[in-house]
Structure formats: structure tokens, C-alpha cells
Amino acid sequence: MRDNANRSRISSVLLMSASLLAMILLTSITAAAQTQKGSDAKLPCVGCAVDGKTPRLPDEHPNLNGFWNTPPRADNPRQVDKAEDGSILFEFSINFDETIPDQLCIDDSCQVKNQPPYNAEYMPKVKALAESMYLGTSSQDPEMACKPNGLPRTGIGSVQIVQTPEIIAVLYESAPSSIYRVIYMDGRPVPDDLEGSYMGYSTGHWEGDTLVVDTVGFNDDTWLGAGGHGRSKYTSIHSDKMHVTERWTRQANTLTVETTVEDPGAFTRPWVLAPRRVQISKPGDYIREAICSQVNMSGNHMVKPTEKDKGQILNGSKANSIK
After folding, report:
1. How far apart are CA 47 and CA 27, in angstroms?
2. pTM to 2 decimals?
């Protein structure tokens, strides 16, 4: 009887100890989670403006450092959001070009007007490529083969900028894989033996508070754009003579890039893009690695229009009739 009583007391003590240990662990985990939640709210925001003022570096030039990822709310409220429980909502198909409407398009009646001014040699090739597109997607698009998007297609969304007086590095999260670009700020000339590349060779200088970037030395293996819900299907190829000029300006937490593309091999005149804007990301957000996986380039796996699509996917109210 005494042994049974002792064993009962020992079991009770062990049970109480286990319960106490579980309570301690639960309290620790809860406290850690609350601490992490509180620390997330206090994470530093690299390059963020304070009191609405544009931050500057010691050389008095605007500070472009930071992760730029969010469209300006006044123009496009869609963004990447972090909920109170810590989960992240990714808004796909964010359109950083505010001039392109959201409605889908499959014919010429809803094409945007500002597309490259191709010459007589290039326009037939561009139209042939346009015939292969459905809602801006084509198996002939170099992006489908995971080739870098190049300029100006890459844009300014989801980029980490690292700025020094001598160079500015632009790290792209997904274009379509994680790639980089270097802007030389030390006054060096463009090399005479420059080899063509996807992102070209960029040199920059300041004109007041505006960063002016000149990029040459492209190959002809990228497209200028396309996509845009099918509204810019005559925006594709270019020659290796392309010259891109960008003007970067920052006002508080908004970065604006104005772009002019000159291509004497393919254009009849310079092509001026609408300004593209992006905001610095929220505290705690950071650039992530993206790996591109090549799609089946035969075109057999690409969605193609059907008879039901005719007259359905247009601008205006009919855009919502497609299921």
C-alpha cells in the first residue's frame, strides 16, 4: 500500500512539473511572438523619408538607397501587404505603368497610342510578332526563355538601390530572374570595345537633384515591352543601336523615372515613355531571390484566343463579360 501511495505522489509531482514546464514554454513562445511583432513595427526603413523631406547623402545629392517596391497609393492602391498576424499578401500583376488601363484587349481598337515609332523595315516584323500574342503573351517573347528583360522593360518596381558617389548598383528582384545593373558615376567614358549585353552599359551624372543615366551597348535579344493586358502588342523588338536615357528624381518617398528611347536602327524618331513611379517599401520588406523557369517555347502550351473571345475582351464594360 505504501509503495502504491509513493508512486501516486511521484506521478502527481511529475504531472505538475510537466504542466508547469508546458506553461513556461507557452508563456515564452507567446512573449517571443509579441516581441517579434513589436520589433517588426520598429524595423528600420533604409532610405525612408522623415517628415516628408527627401533624404540626402553627405554629398547633398538625393539618397536613392532602399528597396523600392510599392506603387504610389494615389495612382494605384494595390501593393504587397503584411497582415497583423504576420502573413503576407502578394498582389500579382501589379501594373507600374499607370497609363495602361486594367481592361483586357485582343484587337487594335484598344491599343495604347504611345508605342515605339518603328520604321518601314521593322514594322512588318513587329506586326508578325503581334499576331503571335494573346493578351500580351507570346511564346516568342525572350522573357519566356528566362532571358533578362533589359531596358526599358525592366522598369523600377521591386529593386534594391545601393548608392555611392562612384557607382550606383540596381538589384532587380525579378526581371524575370534576379539580376543586377551598375551605373558608373565616376566620369569614365564608354569602352571602345564594348560588347552588347541585355542591360547595356550605364553611366550617370547629376543635373541638380535629377540623376541622368545614359545606357548604350545593348544586344538585340530583348523586347521593349509588350504585355500591358494586351494593349501594347506593337512594343517588342529593337536593334543593337538603341540608346536609353533616364531621368531619376526623388520626392520624399516617391521615385519617378522618365525614359526616352532612341534607336536609329529601328525607329523613325525617339520614343518617350510616360513617367513611371514607385514608392519605397514598408519597414521590414526586403528583396527576395527569384529563379526563372523556362516555359515550353513551342507555343503548344500557350493560351490562344477562341471564337468566344471575339468582341468579348475589349475596353469598357465588355471587359468584364469574359469568365
Report:
1. 36
2. 0.75
d(CA 141, CA 176): 12
What are the pLDDT digits (tens) for 99-112? 545 567 878 888 99
d(CA 96, CA 235): 16
> Residue 287: exposed, middle, or buried by beta-carbon count in 10 A (0-12, 13-18, 19+)?
middle
Residue in this structure with the C-alpha cell 528566362, named with its chain if needed? 146
Do 246 and 212 contact (CB within 8 A), yes or no? yes
Are residues 136 and 227 in contact, defined by beta-carbon separation less than 8 angstroms? yes
- Write out the H or E segment, with its range, that includes residue 13: helix 2-41
Per-residue model confidence as pLDDT tens digits over 52-101: 999 999 999 999 999 999 777 544 444 444 455 555 544 444 444 445 45
Round to whole Å and give the CA distance between 287 and 152.
Answer: 20
E strands within 139-193? 159-163, 167-172, 179-184
The span from the CA of 279 to the CA of 276, in Å, is: 11
Cα distance between residue 278 and residue 97, in whole Å: 10
* Nearest-angstrom CA–CA distance, 148 and 221: 9
Cα–Cα nearest to 227, from 136, 150, 148, 143? 136
Residue 245 bridge partners (DSSP): 214, 260
CA atoms 106, 107, 113, 115: torsion sign: positive
Q: Beta strands 66-70 and 88-89: pairing type?
A: unpaired
